[in-house]
Amino acid sequence: MGYPNGVAPQGNQPLFSFGVITDVQYADIPDGRSFIGVPRYYRNSILVLQRAVQKWNNHQNISFSLNLGDIVDGYCPKDQSLNAVRKVAKEFENFNGPVYHMIGNHCLYNLPRSKLLPLLSIPSVDTCAYYDFSPIPEYRFVVLDGYDISAVGWPHDHPHTIEALKLLDEKNPNVEKNSPNGLVDLERRFLKFNGAVGKEQLKWLDNILQDATKSNQKVVVCCHIPLDPGATSKEALLWNYDEVMDVIHRYDCVKACLGGHDHQGGHSVDSHGVHHRVLEAALECPPGTDAFGYIDVFEDSLELLEFVFLNGNGELLELVNGYSSGSITIMSYLTVDLSASVRNQLLNPDSYQQY
């Protein structure tokens, strides 16, 4: 059972803790806005990362950190892409422990997989970017490659590119494949800035979860692109989230899924009791504010701590939400809202945002 109100008893020590941050999207360019008008602070985002690393190091008990993707922005001038990736990767290297990266669409706008993966020390076979690791015997983390099937990052004649473009042509009639205009409900996920998990990766995931079940391990699945419609906007959802979740739901070992991509963040509990937590973007922090945190892992709970942000009105939100389901609890101490003007734009079915 989870702890009452999702809070561990005072004095109880976690099995381990790990840092989390997503969507830094650094670029040495002036501030801008998303397609729906949300401010983006390209130069400031690396300062958010610096404070995150400092906080994790000061904590002294953070075992590792997770970067959930998009370390540089697509607007980064292409002649600066390599240096920008190196600069952000260097900031992560200042953390006193292992850093586990995953790739996002903005990473792939800047560099091909062949250059990107070595810079981020991502274990790779045939430039695929999925892998797993176990910080302690009782827990396993599974990192998915959400751009395995993608129109970005692969050579133009690569089978994964061809498969992605074929799917987009079938599902999205718009000339601009990043536009959801005319698409209805969950079909709005078929946008070029999203992607899919390929068949070989699905087989790999099934084998990993079989092994975790035999080893009596709890599993946390991580993917830049969210895996549950309840935790994200429909436009920021993995193309074949349903196939991935079909594999995950075959087993009881997966307790939580972590993601980025949708900058507003979100939380849901799916039909099988798996928690989905999409983390807020560091990119959209006004100067002096932060979006990062760390997660304390207990035997029967996960607690997300110190995830700080301001809403679109410049007001600090101090809502405490405890989520529990049987053997796991996820805590989110601070949540994100948008200003009324931006929220109204979100209600426009023809507005879209390159996450």
From TrEMBL:
Isomerase as a keyword of this entry, yes or no, is no
What is this enzyme's class at the first EC digit?
Answer: hydrolase
List, alphabetically, the SUPFAM superfamilies matched. Metallo-dependent phosphatases (SSF56300)
UniProt GO molecular function:
2',3'-cyclic-nucleotide 2'-phosphodiesterase activity; ADP-ribose diphosphatase activity; CDP-glycerol diphosphatase activity; manganese ion binding
Query: Catalytic activity, per the record?
Result: CDP-glycerol + H2O = sn-glycerol 3-phosphate + CMP + 2 H(+); ADP-D-ribose + H2O = D-ribose 5-phosphate + AMP + 2 H(+); CDP-choline + H2O = phosphocholine + CMP + 2 H(+)
The Swiss-Prot or TrEMBL record lists the needed cofactor(s) as: Mg(2+)
Asked if the keyword Isomerase belongs to this entry, the reply reads no
Q: Which Gene3D superfamilies match?
A: 3.60.21.10
Q: Report keywords, A-Z.
A: Hydrolase, Metal-binding, Zinc
* InterPro entries xref list: Calcineurin-like_PHP, Metallo-depent_PP-like, MPP_ADPRM
Q: What is its EC number?
A: 3.6.1.13, 3.6.1.16, 3.6.1.53
- A Pfam family (short name) is Metallophos
The UniProt family comment states: Belongs to the ADPRibase-Mn family.
Record's subunit section: Monomer.
Q: What's this protein's name?
A: Manganese-dependent ADP-ribose/CDP-alcohol diphosphatase
